[in-house]
Amino acid sequence: MARDPKYDVLFEPVRLGPKTMRNRFYQVPHCNGVGSDRPGSQAAFRAMKAEGGWAVVCTEACFVDLEEDTAPCPISRLADEGDIRNHRHMTDGVHEWNSLAGVELVHLGAFASNLESRGVTFSSSVNTSPWTLTTYTREADEDDIRGLHRLFVEAAKRAEQAGFDIIYVYGSHSVLPMQFLSPYYNRRTDKYGGSFENRARFWIEMFHALKETIGDRCAVASRISVDQILGPAGIESRGEDILRLVELATREGLVDVWDINICDLSDYGEDAGPSRFNKSNHQAPFTTHITAHIKSIADVPVINVGRLTSPDDMLEVVSSGQADIIGAARPSIADPFLPNKIEAGRLVDICECIGCNVCISRHERGVPLVCTQNPTAMEAYRRGWHPERFKPASDSSAVLVVGAGPAGLECARVLGERGYDVHLREAEPEVGGHVREVMRYPGLAEWGRVISYRQARLDMLKNVEVHTGVGAMTASQILDYGAEKIVLCTGARWLGDGFSPVTQVAIPGVDAGLPQFLTPEQVMAGEPVGDRVVVLDADGYYTGASLAEYLADQGKTVSIVTQLPFVAPLTEWTLEVNNLHRMLHEKGIDQYPHHWIDRVEPGNRLKAALYNVHRDGYRRTTTPIAGELPRRAGTEEQVIECDSIVLVTARHPNDGLFTDLKARKESWATAGITGVYMAGDCYAPRQLSEAVFDGHRMAREIDSPHPQRPLPFIRERIVWDEAEPVAAGR
Amino acid sequence: MTPAALPDYDVPDKASFRMMVAVKQVGRLRDDVAIADDGRDVDASRLDYALNEWDDSALEEALRLVERLGGGEVVAVTVGPERADEVLHRVLAKGAQRAVRVWHDDLAGADAITIARALAGIARHERPDVILTGAQSADQAQGATGAALARMLNLPHVGVAVALDWDGAGPLMVVRELEDGGHHRVALPTPALASVQTGANQPRYATMRMIKAARAKPLVFVEGGAALDRGAFGRVVRAYLPRVDRGAEMLAGDADEVAARVDEIIRETVGDR
Amino acid sequence: MSGVLVIAEHRRGKLRPVTGELIGAGVSLTAAIGGPLTVLVVGPHGTDVAAELAASVSVAGVQRVLVVASGPEHFDAATCAAIAARVASDEQPRAILVGHTVDGMGLGAALAVGLGAGLAADVFALAVNDGEIIATRGGYGGKIALDIEFPPGRPIVLCLRGASFRPALGEGSAEIVAIEASPDDAPVSSQHIEYRDTPAAGFDLAKSEFVIAVGRGVGDATHLARFQALAEKLGASLACSRPVADAGWLPKSHQIGQSGAVAEACKLYLALGISGAVQHLAGMKHVETVIAVNTDGAAPIFGYATYGACMDLFEFTDALENLLASDPAAFGRS
Predict the structure, then answer these.
(1) Per-residue pLDDT for A730 more than 50?
(2) What is residue A604's predicted lDDT score, i.e. its pLDDT?
(3) CA-based nearest distance C170→chain A, Å
């Protein structure tokens, strides 16, 4: 198939100073949880995007100062020859596909945690950040500023040696240049503080330094957050400062490409907006007029981001003049082959980002990113997985996949791509499993793409049949089915007795069989919920808060009880936490953090005995006594009344079918069955991204000797060698 | 318009009831549509083939009738080239006992009445008690084959059937669906023909075991239909992509902007309510 | 052979709207090929129904109305086809027009076989080239158009798609001729048992000015309540495409399309997750303002809609609900 001519404009080359990108698809700088210290994983991940058609592929943050780090989040460095070699592996990989490589050179300033370097970083003033708290910066004096510029220039030279085509003077997310420009951080009274010219000086000096060093050979890019989303306390897109900055730099020809976004690093969820709160192209109201302002001065290309996944949206962005270049991070993770698919007219094959931010949640915690939609993300190197290539089936087994939730859909898809004959059987009339419920939580409609993408792919695979509405299969039916391999993907359920990791026991009085107690499944199935609802949330991720919002929107009076220090702490990693809590506050949802329920007195009006999980004595008993808590046992409790309690306390695998089949293992051989496996939550409940991953892995490895156990993967690490000790980092 | 004269083939004696189901392998277009070189059809290489959805419902009705009667045979018949065997394998896997395929290259592109003549030729050999067809085919959607077949065989006929029942002795009870959603119950003396509408039932799936077992069931190829004039009743003179006005003004912006625009449109068109 | 014979369609004593459209098509066709335009009304044996209906089909352009009162009590394809074949053999029209309807589908093909006539069904356009009739119908779910030509020397039976031809209007002065019954008029046929009407839906889709229709894209039954609520809030009637009714998510009376209701009085049609299959279009493409929401930019419905949004219908619904929540007067609701 061929490219629809209406998308031709997206494949026009764009000149970036001395370089030219071959189309308008640009992977903007983003972290991936490995950085330059794991060059194998880094290069494979980034090169995949170049192969998939992204004309520019950038690194993550590359700190120019060894005294700075943002541990535990891994980043890149360009301090010595070793770093150059590591980066060159990536740039070579990107260049192989005729794409350009960009490096995000950055001074972090106030946001550096320095947990590993133990160093001190500089900022415009003495600053710390909500992320780093106890670690303060030193106010850079003029010597320090010259030193910072020098570090930058040296890093830029090494970047050129490493093969980079585009070098950033990074200023977005309130990193150091913004810490000078913005009065939110800059309280200086010397020539680097006060007036606009003074506050802009540091940034403009960095531009000059970079231009002089590599300006005629590499493209100088700058990423700027045109609005810190702090209101008048910070830089505003409709304010004077940012317009004057871009004007100054553009007029002096200091920048070859502007990469524009919004946010302050303290809440970069305003940039990497989760789909719950920010829809595609959400930054346009802040950035469009900036583009117009730049264009009124010079024809310097402008990049915009905004979780753009639809080719038609991208077309609109370019045609309307909002931006020249489609910038993307998450959409390129979900589908590295997005540009190629538009080129080939395979629009329906595009795997769209759902905006869950699970990718970010991983690298924020110091590990390689993952992607709910693309299980091969970050697995190219360590497992050899390619999103578009699948090893053909090594035998002619027919595979029965039981359950078409996220794991089953993905398993059937990959088995189908490998050429296996597959029957995917779903008890319900519609495929999707628990995602069908999750996508109906407020704001999470895009999560439904997990289902729709796979449904569309399965529809194209001739060797996969999807049977819906067949009811729950029994072990006898499975034994009789005629398949050689069975993969059970029967999912998990929320427990209805209040069992949780808080106490590892059920809560007396709690019973989802009674109408006053509901599991999330029951709520979404439309069972009646009373006016006053308590959501009991031991999960800490999105389910409790989402159901609370869902019920509040229906006019209920809702409270959330959680043993955790605040509601949904796991959403801190997905950058949802701030707006989630603003939502809880705005919708009047009461919260009882640090609390759990000891027991519930049944009745039409429920009486729940709440207690503070820290009510026990803080001094441990010096001599333990059997049968007693080794500290004073607290007894204070508070009874709250409500009509319904929603139980988000713990999940449990639906593995009964596996147990039944295993009990009849001696019948497998006569039935022609060579293996029965489980994938997804029915093996062990976990996050959605892991259920999809598990289905994928099972399909890739179903012909390995023991498919239930993952095959070994490459652990990219340093192994000591007596003959050649590892070179020192400095 | 007589049934085609087709060569004899091995038709088993009727042990009990016999249902004949006419099935069709239909082509489904993907997104890339191209016209064939002769300009009279689509480029067949762009087609995915499958069992016609309406015929799937007709087959399911036949299987259920036989199950409720406690015995009987379902024989599936198709007019199609060799690739149509795939559809016959599928209906055998679902539970039909026998399948018959009629073909001659002269039948390529034949109209509905010519196809009906070939089916009628088989019906003459099979002498079924009930013939079921799908109400229409997904690719040509004329809804004519069943009615034409009934007329050729002088059988009573009901179209757009959504429910059937037969006790084996009395008339075939059929409910047909009317445009406003109402139903019309009629009784047909057998032998009779009914064209079945989708939604009449939920067609069963064939398990892998049923698919494997079906390989042993009889699938007979009858070469016939050479003398039939495939264009006697109408011939495609030109196939083309319909002029798509693309009249839809696509609403731009994010969801909130689209919703706001829809708000305007609603006020403009139906005003305050 | 000359002229056109139209076979009127009626049910339970009332003429069906497609009849007017057949006559309208017949007026245009006879203008092009010449000859008389005749309408045949077959009414139940021994009743006045046919005679009563004759007056309604006597519109401008019709020369003669033939009335036969020898048909079955209720529609039976075989019997009607036999009678029509007899009349057509006498009249020798070049073309016979029948509706592509539940009744017409049984009648048209049987009639063609009986007469040895050409046949094309679900025809939505007619043309005359050098005196030859060309019928256009669709293929592959409406993705392709097919022009059909017919062999000379035979009459042609054409089953015309509903809501595709402009109905004939205006008072006429046709000659009304009663035709005698014949013993051959009653071949083996079906026996009417009863009609079962759908229970009253509490609303009449055919009368609604604002219709919101949901298609397959709506996912499953549990979502319907939300769209029901939305329709109520917006003052619209909730309708659906065929797959939704087949799955039982909405009663059949909510179905719009060829085998469902036609949104006759509709001024604004909001189609959510509906691809625009030909069968559905038949029920709504005449509506003045159609807004279609579908993730598939190539969905046929965008070729007929006035406005389109290529997006997920749940995201769209989220946004509508947000707008309603923030502004109760949105969408003109007071």
Answers:
(1) no
(2) 83
(3) 48
Q: What is the mean pLDDT of residues B96-111?
A: 93
d(CA A673, CA A478): 10
Domain-embedded: residue B60: yes
| Beta-bridge partner residues of A153 | none
User: Which is more confidently placed, C297 or B169?
Assistant: B169
Amino acid (one-letter) located at A451: I
> Would residue A412 count as lying in a domain?
yes
User: Once rounded to an integer, what is the mean pLDDT over residues A546-561?
Assistant: 95
Which chain B residues have any C-beta within 8 angstroms of a chain A C-beta?
A: 31-32, 48, 202, 205, 207-212, 250, 252, 254-256
Residue C311 lies in a domain: yes
E strand map for A6-99: 14-16, 19-21, 25-27, 56-63, 76-77
**In A81-203, beta strands by DSSP E:** 100-106, 122-123, 138-139, 166-170
CA atoms within 13 A on the CB side of B164: 38
The answer on C210 and C169 residing in a single domain is no
Per-residue b/e over C152-173, b at no fewer than 16 CB within 10 Å? eebbbbbbbbbbbbebbeeebe
Active-site pick, A7, A26, A30, A31 = A31
Q: Please check whether residues A464 and A539 belong to one and the same domain.
A: no
Domain boundaries, position C285: 205-332
Arithmetic mean of pLDDT over chain B: 91
Output C244 or A415, whichever has higher pLDDT: A415
Candidate list A65, A69, A271, A349, residue with the active-site label = A271
pLDDT tops 90 at residue A642? yes
Whichever domain contains C113, its CATH number is: 3.40.50.620
Is A312 within 8 Å of C315 when comparing Cβ atoms?
A: no
Is the pLDDT reported for residue A729 higher than 50? no
Q: Does A524 touch chain C (CB under 8 A)?
A: yes
Tokens of A504: 């590892």
| A470 CB within 8 Å of a chain C CB | no
Q: Which residue has the higher pLDDT, C246 or A480?
A: A480
What is the pTM assigned to this prediction?
Answer: 0.90
pLDDT band at A727 (very low <50, low <70, confident <90, very high): low
- Listed by number, the residues of chain C in 104-123 with a beta carbon closer than 8 Å to a beta carbon of chain B are 105-110, 112-114, 116-122
Which residues make beta-bridge pairs with A237? none
- Supply the mean pLDDT for chain C: 87
Interface confidence, given as ipTM, is 0.88
**For range A85-93, the mean pLDDT:** 97
**H/E element holding C290?**
strand C289-293
User: Per-residue pLDDT tens for C183-203?
Assistant: 777 666 888 889 888 665 556
CATH no. for residue A588? 3.50.50.60
A436 closest CB neighbour out of C219, C225, C297: C219
Lowest-confidence pick of A120-124, C59-63, C114-118, C260-264: C260-264
| A315 and B CB contact within 8 Å | no
Whether the CB of C194 is below 8 Å from some CB of chain B: the reply is yes
**Substitution target from B184, B190, B197, B272 for chain C, most C beta carbons within 10 A:** B184
**Chain A: touching chains (3 or more CB pairs < 8 Å):** B, C
Report the distance separating Cα C206 and Cα C200, nearest Å.
Answer: 13
Domain residues for the domain of A669 are 398-491+654-700
Q: What is the pLDDT of residue B245?
A: 58
Q: Is residue A373 part of a domain?
A: no
Is A441 known to be catalytic? no
Q: Which two tokens stand for residue B239?
A: 């196939």
Number of structural domains chain C divides into: 2
Q: Is residue C196 part of a domain?
A: no
